Fold:
Amino acid sequence: MLWNMAFRYLTGRKLRSVLTTLAVIFGVMVIFGMNILIPSMMQGFQANIMAASGLVDVNITHKTGGSFDPGIADQVKSVSGVSAVTVSLNRTVNLPADFYDHDPAKVDKITTLGLIGVDVNTAQSVRAYMLQSGRFLQADDRDAAIISQSLADNLGLKLGNTLPMPSTSGVVNLKIVGILPPHIQTSNEEVQVTLAQAQGMMDQAGKINAMDVNFNTSDVAQRDQIKQNIETMLGADYQIGSLPSGSEAFASIKAGQAVFNIFGFLALFMGGFIIFNTFRTIVAERRHDIGLLRAIGASRRTVVSVILIEGLLQGIIGTAIGMLLGYLIGAGALSGLSQMMSSFIHIQISGVIVSPGLVVLCIVAGVGVTVLAGLIPALQASRVTPMEALRPSAAEVENRRWLTPGFVIGAICLGGAFIMLFSKDLGIVLLGSLLFLTGLVLVSPALVRPIAILFGALFNVIFARQGIGQLAEGNLTRQPSRVAITASTTLIAMAIVVAAGTMTTSISGSITDLMHKTLGSDYLFVPPSIAIWSSDMGASQNFTTQLQGVDGVGDISAMRYASSKYQQVAVSVLGIDPVNYPKVSGFLFSEGGDSAYPQLTQGRTMIANDIFLASAGVKVGDTIHLSTMQGEKPYKIIASAADLLNMKVNTAYISQENLKTDFGVTEDIFIQLNLKPGADKNAADTKVRAVAANYPQFNLISGKAYYESLSGTIDAVFMGMYVLLAMLALPSLIAILNTLAIGVIERTREIGMLRAVGATRSQIYRLIVMEALLLASLGTAFGILGGLYLGYVTVRGLTMMMPVAYSFPLPGVIAAIVIGLLFGFIAAIIPARQAARLGIVQALRYE
Structure:
């Protein structure tokens, strides 16, 4: 019976039910859609960057992920219980676009390959190489390789054919001497060569970066003991289990998930306001029905149950539709992101991942918010006595008092938020932003009347001849709490718009400066993957030597990469030439300046970017111990700065000399050069491109072209943000529409009386429109105030990751005003037409 009654109430007011359910749909849609992005992107990283290690008992790497001396294998082999050990030099290599098919019109089947140098004397004692044809590698092989059948099929190769592969010395043509069974996943395709061959191709003479170990027992306790003995023997510099390449970027990607979650929960929060306001108004509208139920014997519990069941039904329907739409949005976003990631960091996203935890979260949030939003109105409805409910209702007017408990608590929240704004702790500042929004919501009922009078005076000028200005103002101020709840939805939406405007305005100037400083050189040699440097095959110093020999070439500078850790924080360590780097590129310093460049040559010093300082909890002037191939080494932080390519990844910049000494790295992964003043650009261009042709792992582009390409990508990212923000503003449209539609139903007799005393249909129409505009003005005014605070907090947070200067968001404020008033007008159309069409006799008889 209860479920039947709830269903009939919902279907009896279809418009109201649809609008309330839409509020849930939007919140769940944003949460679900945005949170399927991160797992799918992470899978793309793991599938494309991490080479499969195979089925072995233990895989040992250095904790930095770098290369080390193979003599360590002898120590591991001496551990009791170890049956076999083999060493290797592994690297996942990002391939340039169209490297194999040379056809831009076709989609590249193979974009990454795992290059694995194996010790031919010990490899087969640890792994089984079941060759389909040909033979295994031999110690005296030169430029020989074994590949899988699936790779051979994809590239149209056979036994005896050659497979070109990028190396630090240019392209090497490998003769296929053996073919292994096909791989199930083409993302894990490997090219296996001799260890000496790989060391030459990677410019890592006498080095390895992995050991595979098998044990001589299957007993779990004994295996655990052998593993523990190996860990004890190797010490803290080595780890069992490979370090995920690109792990220094994972934290930045996951940080994006927190932003998406905030957007989603804000949307659901707005939905909660809409639902609460709807159910609260439903109780007033159904006073007579509730009285009849109580009069014929319905208990308070029955009344509460009916209203909560209505909320549950709407929550279930809204959550289901929201998850479906969220999936479609997430899948569409992944399709767009896949192309961008493939172009700029050479990562392929294979599919959409939906975790069970996300499904549970959306169900709990969507259904839970709906039920909780209806709980307080349901309890209020249950307290209505039968006699009170059956008595003809009079217009209820709230007592207009300033010092209500809500106002006092809200004022305290606003004061606390203002104090927290000056904290240096980002967590406290973020907490202050939540307190600020909460405070605005709590104090808004007391401010409804003065603000309504202010905006009412303005609208009275517009509607002066209609005589409806004071009437519309009075209708709103009669129920300030309900109006404040509805306005709060617009408040949050407009606050987001203004905050986004602040962020966009502030960040665009910094990005422009970074692009000019970082990418201002005449030529850039860009690898397939940007910032995720570990998968890029660089070049030996012979490449820059050849470039320097070209007539017209002036200053040249290169970046070199090594991975490291500070405590548990992964960090990209980039080696720069302190002398030449500032001549062709540069940093945007947030602390320190150009004097930091020569200081990099004075012992172990480093320049850190802001995101690393925030992640590691350190500051300029501190000395930290980085994990290196020579153990932990102390580095003093002399400045904080950022360059465009690495600003979102934990990054430390040191001298190339220190990178060579501590990490053993001399491979160039990113090169910039300038032509000499007055040089023949056409002649120099031809010669530079001729030299670059031998190193196809680099894309040779001009600084201007790369600048324009990145500008287009950044514009596209901001455009996507605006689309998301527009979606988040839609619940405010639903909130106003819902409130006005219910208000028309609640004031049916009142509208009938206005028509009876001579009000025309057009006056009733304009009355509802004016109420909507007043309601939107209230929310927009509070939203701009909240958005200015949130925008400042956002920029404060960004300064901890990159140099950003606060800019007043005039475009965002104007956009908020336009959107707020436009939404108010659009929301009024249906309720205004509904009110204008009410028949006088039917309206007067309504109760």
Q: What stands out?
A: The chain has a mean pLDDT of 79.
